[in-house]
Amino acid sequence: MDNTEQARVPAKLLLNPIHLLSLGFGSGLSPKMPGTMGTVVGLGLYLLLPAQYLADWRIYLAIIIATFIIGIFLCGNTAKALNVHDHPGIVWDEIVGYFITMFMVPKEWIWILIGFVLFRFFDILKPWPISVADKRLKGGFGIMLDDVIAAIFALIIIQITLYLL
Questions:
Q1: What is the pLDDT of residues 41-99, one digit of tens each?
Q2: Domain, as residue range, for 84
Q3: How many structural domains are present in the chain?
Q4: Ramachandran region, residue 20 (left: φ > 0; alpha: ψ -120 to 50; beta: rest)
Q5: Residue 2 lies in a domain
Q6: How many C-alpha atoms does 129 have within 13 Å on its Cβ side?
């Protein structure tokens, strides 16, 4: 999808809370790298999470599951409103993907940055099976799942690195 198609997102969509969230509080409307801008929002939200939520893996997992389930609804609704399966402006999936990437990862700047870079790498490159999920699955679930898989790839690399250190 080129930037002219992306630009067709009416700004009034941001007045609807569903679209405001799925478009990453407007970050997905960035004319350059909307997925990366959405991940920046995810990083910011991650930093705002209270330390006790991150320290208790059960609470953090509940946050991930809740944001994933909500994301299916949000992304599916915005895709229908825009009449495009996975519009680049829909970035709630990047936000949740970053949350998954940082599961049980130390809240230190080096890991926050590594998580960001690894997640963007896998989300952009889309190696198998991410590419299969991206192409074959539709609706809100399909929009969310390829980013979940990319995040799991990034998380595995981080966890292996943490284990080896």
A1: 999 999 999 999 999 999 999 999 999 999 999 999 999 999 988 899 999 999 999 99
A2: 9-164
A3: 1
A4: alpha
A5: no
A6: 8
